Amino acid sequence: MTIEELSNNQDEQRIKIFKALADPIRLNIIRLLYQKQDELNCGEIGILLTISKSAASYHFRTLREAGLTTTRKVGQNKFVKLNQETFDTFLPGFLNSLDK
Asked: How far apart are CA 96 and CA 100, in angstroms?
């Protein structure tokens, strides 16, 4: 892979990240996960943010595709957590700013 290809891939990742974070609901999901410092059940997050299952599913998918979260399924339950590596690589310090 050339430097230009690598740079283009990273830029595509950055675009996905910023698009994902541009939505207030998704930003609140990130904030909740950061404050919890652990994974949360998707249903719990939906209830806390008073969003429908279909809306929550859309937001979780967008965050996952941007690499900001990971999802784990256990039976019928899905659990989501922050992908710390993505924040460390592309947005160092961003999560700490959510406390302010």
From this structure: 8
Number of structural domains (the chain) is 1
38 exposure class (CB count in 10 Å sphere: 0-12, 13-18, 19+): exposed
CATH of the domain at 69: 1.10.10.10
In a domain, 24, yes or no: yes
- To the question of pTM greater than 0.85 for the whole model, the response is yes
Q: What is the pLDDT of residues 20-41, one digit of tens each?
A: 999 999 999 999 999 999 999 9
Domain holding 37, by residue range, is 10-97
Half-sphere exposure of 94 (CA within 13 A, CB side): 18
Q: Please tell me the distance from the alpha carbon of residue 58 to that of residue 63, in angstroms, as a whole number.
A: 9
